[in-house]
């Protein structure tokens, strides 16, 4: 799950090409209370896919955007990307068939410590994918990315713990799938300069963030903290329509706000005193 309590900024100017990278968590009728604010119904998800198609957006693989951010060929005009965090079981049962029916690529960032029996790991009272299902999704063409091992707030951890979470996650996925993986996403959207350095050292070539709660990516974005638009239960049809038209959110890159820095300092202070801020109920 990704939680960033920072308000939206004003829209950036038109000088940057806007790339909406949509972020979903669960797509379900039956989410536990802690996950419900970040869950959309299957019907709503289908409506979103229809709106994306009707708007003229072309859904491209994340790798294509990342290549452009690293200086490769630019993405086609009116491109969009679909991403999913955490690794809930509904991705296999609900999301993947809907994407396959439309021929749409997507990236799924999995928290490896949650890929066990229902209810285990860092996500209470919700069914998650198994390693076998992750392998099947990978074989079907879904890009599998990493979302750490235990979904911590990386920017509050000692460097050694960050390295274990970031590199350990990569190692586990690559051993399970039998090939390298390149895409990472920060739990809760939280990162820092030091965390991003560890991510780069671990061999991840991209890392998804959440800038100002939601932001468009762009041709000038930072591949190690590119912006995403977080789709929530309360994301209305009008708001989603604005996003598909390239409006309604700031365009990354932009400087980290003082409020974001203050929020990080607060969470770090709590962690240091043994009273960590809990973004997900224990």
TrEMBL record:
UniProt keywords, alphabetically: Signal
Residues covered by the NodB homology domain: 78-282
A Pfam family: Polysacc_deac_1
GO cellular component: extracellular region
Gene Ontology BP annotations: carbohydrate metabolic process
Keyword Acyltransferase: no
Localisation per UniProt entry: Secreted
Main location: secreted
GO MF assignments: hydrolase activity, acting on carbon-nitrogen (but not peptide) bonds
UniProt-listed InterPro entries: Glyco_hydro/deAcase_b/a-brl, NODB_dom, Polysacch_Deacetylase
UniProt keyword Signal, yes or no: yes
Identification of the protein by name: Polysaccharide deacetylase family protein
Organism expressing this protein natively: Streptomyces luteolifulvus
Organism phylogeny: Bacteria, Bacillati, Actinomycetota, Actinomycetes, Kitasatosporales
């Amino acid at each position: 799950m990704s939680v960033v309590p920072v308000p939206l900024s004003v829209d950036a100017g038109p000088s940057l090409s806007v790339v909406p990278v949509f972020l979903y968590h669960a797509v379900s009728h039956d989410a536990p209370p802690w996950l419900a604010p970040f869950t959309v119904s299957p019907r709503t998800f289908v409506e979103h896919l229809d709106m994306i198609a009707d708007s003229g957006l072309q859904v491209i693989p994340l790798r294509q955007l990342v290549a452009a951010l690293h200086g490769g060929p630019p993405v086609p005009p009116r491109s969009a990307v679909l991403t999913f965090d955490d690794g809930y079981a509904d991705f296999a049962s609900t999301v993947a068939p809907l994407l396959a029916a439309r021929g749409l690529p997507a990236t799924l960032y999995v928290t490896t410590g949650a890929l066990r029996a229902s209810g285990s790991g860092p996500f209470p009272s919700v069914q998650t994918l198994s390693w076998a299902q992750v392998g099947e999704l990978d074989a079907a063409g879904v890009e599998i990315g990493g979302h750490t091992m235990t979904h911590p707030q990386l920017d509050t951890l000692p460097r050694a713990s960050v390295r274990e979470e970031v590199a350990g996650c990569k190692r586990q996925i690559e051993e399970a799938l039998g090939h390298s993986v390149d895409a990472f996403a920060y739990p809760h959207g939280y990162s820092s300069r030091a965390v991003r350095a560890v991510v780069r050292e671990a061999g991840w070539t991209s890392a998804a963030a959440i800038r100002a709660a939601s932001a468009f990516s762009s041709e000038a974005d930072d591949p190690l903290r590119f912006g995403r638009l977080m789709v929530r239960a309360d994301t209305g049809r009008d708001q989603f329509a604005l996003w598909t038209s390239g409006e309604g959110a700031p365009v990354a890159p932009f400087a980290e706000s003082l409020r974001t820095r203050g929020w990080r300092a607060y969470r770090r202070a709590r962690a240091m005193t043994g009273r960590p801020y809990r973004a997900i109920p224990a």
